[in-house]
Amino acid sequence: MNEFFKKLPFLDHILKGIGQIMLQENRWTGLLFLVGIFMGSWQCGVAVLLSTAAGTFTAMKLKYAQSEINAGLYGFSAALVGVALAFLFETTPVIWVLILLGGALAAIIQHFFIQKKIPVFTFPFIVITWVLVFVLHHFTHIPPSAMLSAEVVPSKYDDFLTCTNGFGEVIFQGGVLSGIIFFIAVFISSPIAALYGLAASILGAGLSQFNGEPIKEIHMGLFGFNAVLSAIVFSGVKKTDGLWVLIAVLLTIAVDDLLIDNHCLDAVGGVFTFPFVAGTCITLFIQKIFIKTKA
């Protein structure tokens, strides 16, 4: 099978780019993510493929470092731009064009920060999507996607499935099966990352419930997905890794709940993965100070 991907390197780059959404440089993780996305919505699945391809193609044409392209570093923000637009809006021709352009622009912005050695994670996706959502809402009449108004039917398993729903919502998927598939996809690449992510999703749901957030949205995983990403960043086998995971997750949850409660980013579509980026960057700063002090 590895020979197959060697013959189709562009496909390999795309799959790794999709896998990098949850920081996994693994083509099989990316493939399972893609399966889970298509199960939720074919429009989102096609959008992810197109935007990731656009980002990867742009990186290749601009002759960015081949090792970075191989690792999928120019695909994950592009992938999220695509799935976000397909999830939020009816997929008109304008949206398909923006999915391609947004994917390409995400790669360019990602490259800028990679060159500066600034870890911004999904920040290019956030900025591009905020701008596009604001413009589309204020200057076009493109209707929202039917997925936004889809009724979520509660079940007796909601409490149990909340933890995996946190994985699903990272890529805008609310289906139970998608969440489970995403968890398995991370687990086959890094069991420790998947388990830390699972614990973070549970903690995010629990603390948000204690904070009085809507139980329906908690069960959907909307208060857990940012925590999942923060946990994955710091996951590792050392005892100190667990401490950094806890700090990052608590900071991420605090930022998430604060922004949502105050409706700070409603005008641009919501918080997306900003709490993850903020919580993780603050934790990295604290970690850097701690290491310097210890030295």
TrEMBL record:
Keyword terms of this UniProt record: Cell membrane, Membrane, Transmembrane, Transmembrane helix
Molecular-function GO terms, alphabetical: urea transmembrane transporter activity
Alphabetical list of Gene3D superfamilies matching this protein: Ammonium transporter AmtB like domains
Transmembrane regions: 31-59, 71-89, 95-113, 120-139, 180-206, 218-237, 243-260, 267-291
Site (Important for channel permeability): 273
Protein family (similarity comment): Belongs to the urea transporter family.
GO cellular component, one term: plasma membrane
Full protein name: Urea transporter
Topology class, membrane: Multi-pass membrane protein
